[in-house]
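Fold these two proteins, one after the other.
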Amino acid sequence: MTSKLRRAADHLVDQLVAQGIRAVFGVPGESYLPVLDAFHNREDEIRFITCRQEGGAAMAADAYGKLTGRPGICFVTRGPGATNASAGVHVAYQDSTPMILFIGQVARGMIDREAFQEIDYRRMFGQMAKWVAQIDDASRIQEYVSRAMRTAVSGRPGPVVLALPEDMLYDEIAPPPAPARFDVPRFGADPAALEALKDRLKSAKTPLVLAGGGGWTERGIAALQRFAEVQGLPVGVSLRCQALFDNDHPNYIGHFGVGTPPYLADAMRETDLLIAIGPRLGEMTTNGYSLLVPPVPEQSLVHVFPQPEEIGRVYQPEIALVSDMQSFCETVADWERVARSDRTARLRETYESFRDPASVPGDPLAPIFAHLAETLPADAIVCNGAGNYAAWLHRFYRYRAPKSQLAPTSGSMGYGLPAAIAAAIAEPEREVVAVAGDGCFMMTCQELATAVHHDLNLTVIIIDNARYGTIRAHQEREYPGRVSSTGLTNPDFCDFARSFGAHASRAEDLDGFAEALNDARMRKGVSVIHVPADPSCLSPGKRL
C-alpha cells in the first residue's frame, strides 16, 4: 500500500485506463459527479463520449465491446438513467458482448428507504447481466473492477452492472499497486472430444458448419476459414453474424436468420453432421426451433461453445466441446483433409443467385443495397438495428472483413446510429455507415447530436416507408386488411439532419442514391441519406 491518498472516483478511472479502455459512453448525472470530474483533463488517456439518452449510450458501449473485444463501458445516473440503459444491457446479454454498466446510486446511508430514484439493481438487472454488484467500500474498487472486466469477457461474454453509491465516490483511499492489464482467457476442448469429432468428420457425407455468437477474434475467424477450406465445408452463419466469414469466399453459403431462405433450410435438414461453432442455436437461427427440433435433433450435432452450461440447454449434442472459438478453430484448421463431394460448390452457386438483385426483378431496394456493397471498401463497418429494411441489407450487402458488421442479434430497434458512433470512435480510419428504417432511426435519432458534437465521420441511410413495417407485415398475415397502430408520421429527415449540423440529401432512386452516397463518402463529418421506400414492400420480392 502507498501512503498517498487518492479520491475513489479518480481511482476508478485509473482502473479503466490501466485496462486499455480508451473511450466510455454515458449521460452525465449528479449521482456520479466525482467520476465526471475524474475524467477532466484526461482526454489523452480516455474520452468520455457524452450521449443524449442512456439507451443510445449503452448501445454504443455494446458496439464498442464488439469491435474491441474488451468491455464497452457506459456510465449512467440512477433510476431513469439506469432504466433507459437497460435497452443496451439487454442487447449485450443476448449478443454475448462484453460490457460494464456503471450506475450512480443513492448514498449508502439512504439505501433501502426508496430514496430519490433509488432502485435495487441486483433485482432489476439480475436476469440480463452476468454479475450485478454495488461497491460500498472504496478500498475494494480495484477488486470489483478487475472481477467485472474478467467476468465480462470470460466464457460466454456479456454485461456486468456495478452500482456506485455517490458518497463512496468522494472517499479517499490508499490505492493498491496498479493492476496488470488482463488478457482474454483462451482454453481448448477436451482431446478425446476432438478425436471423436475427427472420426465423425471422416464419415460425414453432408457436413455443415454454422458459425455465430460473440467472443470471436480475427485469429479465430482466419482459422475458421482455413478449416473450411481444408475440409471443403460449407459455412453458414447465425443471425446477424455475417462478418464471421468473408461473404465472397467460395465456402460461404449464407445467413440463417429471420426468414431463412429455403435452400439453407434444406441444407440444414439434409446435413448428417452439423458443427455449430459459437452460436446458442436460438429461435431466430433455427426458425422457431423447427430446423433443429429439440431436445435431440435428427441431425448429428457437434456444439462448440465457451460456456458448459449452454451446451445441452436446448439441444443435446452428440459431441460437446467446451472451448473458446479461437482455440478450437486453430486446433482443427490443420487437420488432414477429407475428400468431399461438390455439395459446397452447389450451395455456393445457389447463394450467389439468391443475393443477386436480379433474383427479385422490379424490387426498388435490392439494387441500392447491391450498389452499397459494390461501392464501400471491404473493411467498411456497416451498422443496423431492426426492421424489415434489414432484410434487404442482409441479403444484398456482402460483408468481407472481420468486425465489419454491427447488428443486434437481440432484434433491438434503434441500434444502428449508436453503433456507428462507437465504430467511428474505435476505428476512425474505416468508413462507417449506419442503415436504419424510419421507425428504427427515430428511436435513437437524438444521437445525431452526439455524432456532430464529437466531430465524427459517419453516414446514416434512412429507409423511410412511414410505418413499422415488420409489425405491419405480421399484421397483414394474422389480420388481413385490419391495420392498427403501425402507421407513422415522420419529420422531413433532411431538414431534421441539417438542424443538428449534418449534411443531408434525398435519394428517390438508384441513380440518386449513388450520387448521394458518393457525395457522403467525399465529405468529413456526419451525412444523412433519406431514401423514401414503397410502403407496400414487405421484404425482398414481397409486397402487400
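Now the second one:
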Amino acid sequence: MEPIIPGVVDLSRLQFAITALYHFMFVPLTLGLTFMLAAMETVYVVTGRQIYKDMTLFWGKLFGINFALGVATGITMEFEFGTNWSMYSRFFGDMFGTPLAIEGLMAFFMESTFVGLMFFGWDRLNRHTHLAITWLVALGSNLSALWILVANASMNLPQGAHFDPATMRMQFDSIVAVIFNPDAQAKFVHTSVAGYVSAAMLVMGISSFYLLRGQHRQFAARSFRMAALFGIISTVAVITLGDVLGRMVYEHQPTKIAAIEGLWHTTKPPFEPWVAFALPDDAKQENHFEIGVPFVVTPLVTHSFFTPITGMHELEEQAAPHIRSGIEAVTALKAWRDGGSADDLARFNAHKADMGYGFLAARHAPHNDVSSIPASKIEQVIVETEPDILPNVFVTFWSFRIMVFLSLLFFGLFAFASWASLKNRLERNRLLLKLCLWSIPLPILATEFGWITAEAGRQPWTVFNLLPTFLSASTHSFSYMVFSLAGFAILYSAFIAAELFLMFKYARLGPEDHTTHAGLAKPHNGDQFASVPAE
C-alpha cells in the first residue's frame, strides 16, 4: 500500500470540491431552463402568439450561455478522476466509468446535437418539428443528469458488483442493479426538480427587473407568471422528494442521517426533539447551544413515532467488530496476494464484507499497513479508528439546514408571487419584485449546500463502506497539487466571470421588440395584458 500523504489528500479533496461546486452552478439552470423553454414553445405552437416565441428565443439565449459553460466545466472534472484519484479509478473505475460512458454516448451527444438544431432551426424547420427538438433537448439534459447520478449512487450505495481479490477491483455483476439503484432514483428526481426551482427563480427574477423598470411589460408579466407557477409546483415536489431521499439515507447510511440531525446519542421516541439549531463540536462529540422541537425528529426521519434513530456514539461502538473483522480481511488478502495458501483466501472471503473497515484502519497502522499491526496493538487501533467512521458533523448538519431553510423560503416566495401574478397585482408589489430579483442566486446556493450535504455526509468514504477517501487519491507531490489547484481556481474563476458578464449583458438587453407600428402589442381575444403599452 502506498504511503498516505495527508496534505496531498486534502488538496485533492479541495480541488475536486471546488471544481464540482463550480460545475454544479451551471447544471441546475440547464436542467430547469430546458423544460421551461419547451413549455413556452408549446404555448407558442398552440396559440400562434409571437410573444411566446420571443420568450422561447430570449430565455433560450440565456440557456445557451449557461449550457456552454456547463459543458466546459464538466469535461475537466472527468480528467480529475484519472489524474488526482487514480486509486479510486482503479478500484471502482468499471462501476463509475460505465454510466459516464453511457451518458456521453447517449445523453450528451443527443443533447448537444439537438441544441444546435434548436438554436439554428427556427427558419429551417416547421413549428411542430422544432417543438419536438426542444422537448428532446429537455429530455437529453435530464437523461444526462440521470446517468451521472447513477454513477454517483454507486459510490453511496454500491450494488451490482463484487470485489475481485485477483485484480483488486470492483467487477460488474448487473447493469440493471446499477441503473435501478434506489439512491440513484431518489437523488435523480430530487436533484432534477431542484434545477427546475433554480430556473424558475432566474426567469422570475429577471422578469421582475423588467417590471421594476417598466420595460418589456407584456413579456415580463407572462414570463413571471409561468415561472412562478412552475416554481411553486417544483418547490413542493423538491420538498416531498427530499423526504423520500432522506428516508433512503436513513435506511442505508446511518452515519450520514445521524450527522444531518446532529444526534450524538440514540433517540428515545417519541419525545426526542428535532435539533433546529446547534453548534456541533466534532472534537468533543457534543452539541453546543442546542435548540430542539419535541415530537418531530422520529416521525420526520423514520415515518414512525416509536422507531429510534441510532446516534453517532452508538454507531461508533457498533463499528468496532466490523473494524476488527476488516483488519482480518485485509491481512488475509495481503497474505494471499504475497503467495499465500487457499486458507488465506478462505479467511479473506469469510471477512470480506468488512474489508473497507480494514482499509479505514490503515491510517492508524504502522506504515499504513494493517497486516503489520502487532497483536497487542489491534484493540488500540480499533479504538482510534472508531471516530473515523463519522463525517464532519458541523458541515453536514449546517449545510442541510441552510438547504431546507432556503427551500421553505422559496415555497413562500413562489406562492405569493403566483397569487400576485394571477390577481394582476405584480407592479403594485415592488417589494415582491425586488425580493424575486435579489433571490436569483439563492436556489443555486441551495443546490450547492444540498450537494455538500450528500458528499460531506458520505465521508470518510469515496465508496461507502468499501474504500476510504484517504486511500483513493493519487500519489502526487505536494507542490504539484498546489500548482494544479491554483490553475483550476484561475480557470474556473474565468468561467464564472464569463458567465456573469454574458448573463448580465443579455439580461439587460432584454428580448427583441416585436410590437406593431402603433406601439402596442398585437391584441388577442381574452388577453388581459393586451392593453399594456409596449416600449
